[in-house]
User: What shape does this take?
Amino acid sequence: MTKPPHAPRRPPRPANAIPADKLPRRQFEEETGGPSWLWGVHASLAALANPARRIERIVATRNAAQRLPEGIEAQILDPGAIDGMLPPGAVHQGLAVRAFPLEPAELEAVCKDADTRSVLILDGVTDPQNVGAAFRSAAAFGARAVVLQDRKSPPLTGVLAKASTGAIELVPHVRVVNLSRAIESLREWGYVTVALEGETQHTLAEALTDPRPVALVLGAEGKGLRPSVAESCEKRARIPIAPAMESLNVSAAAAIALYEAARAR
Assistant: This one.
């Protein structure tokens, strides 16, 4: 039986791809959009308070269960039993939630009608700790959204959620295929787009004298921004630091940039 002429074609499967049924359980769940564990008091309580979250299971020690909101019940377990459910080294503080992933927002839906809030864009930042810390700063300084590159950014689960201390539940995240096009769209909608780089002569304070809302674009440590992404930005700026240090950690740079942008507006 032949397929209809307009039937969509499935992309060829890489020769070295692992069959879905052979993947480790956690990897399979993340790649197929299934539920995964969030742990730690702040991350867990924030997920439970987020109406956009679909919760499958809650486990807690007897002491940690006392911190749950009224009406929410958990399966009471010993700390060691919770340890066995989570990745090695996960610091759960007696509370963990198994939840389905948050759906990303559309860039136009959350950013088109520009106001005074900043947008944070991360290019090639793959360390979950750094991305989680950047979300935490985005929430602290009232950012409008965090924009990530689709398929090249870590999922908003586990270690990342713990590092964000619940901020992933508060700040919309956007995943785009092409960051340069996203930056161009933000420019069209009235944002001044600023690439953070160490080599330029202009400081961030100088770039932020522009009264328009700002989109801050940061790259990974070491690699920095890709040339095509940096060239899409209207301005390039640096955070002045002492000569003894070559650069800042990307999450520290994001915190400083978001604070300065909020203060300037």
